[in-house]
Design goal:
Order of helices and strands: EHEEEEH
Distance between the termini: 28 Å
Structural class: alpha+beta
Number of helices: 2
Radius of gyration: 13 Å
Shape: globular
Largest sheet: 5 strands, mixed
Length: about 90
């Protein structure tokens, strides 16, 4: 799970690995933030993944065509603060 600096170019060139249902491009600046590409789709989405009460949860932040990198990073940080304060951001 290599992490990279998310840039518009990296996201534009990112695609799902052959033979996999989904592939993630993990952000090296904000823990838990990634871009997800799925097989058979040209759409890519920002996701946030973290543990809540020992359970891994994944939240879709939004489509990369709607959210810019800075906004997605801010939203991932906001979600982590909720978790750090003992709240489940899904509920």
């Amino acid at each position: 799970m290599a992490k990279v600096k998310l840039t518009a170019g990296r996201i534009a060139n990112f695609q799902c690995d052959e033979g996999k249902a989904q592939t993630f491009l993990w952000c090296d600046e904000v823990p838990g933030l990634a871009v997800r590409a799925t097989q058979g789709s040209t759409r890519k989405r920002y996701i946030f993944e973290s543990k809540v009460k020992q359970q891994t949860m994944r939240i879709t932040i939004g489509d990369v065509s709607v959210w810019n990198i800075t906004a997605a990073q801010s939203e991932a940080r906001r979600l982590q603060v909720l978790i750090d304060n003992g709240n489940d951001p899904v509920k």
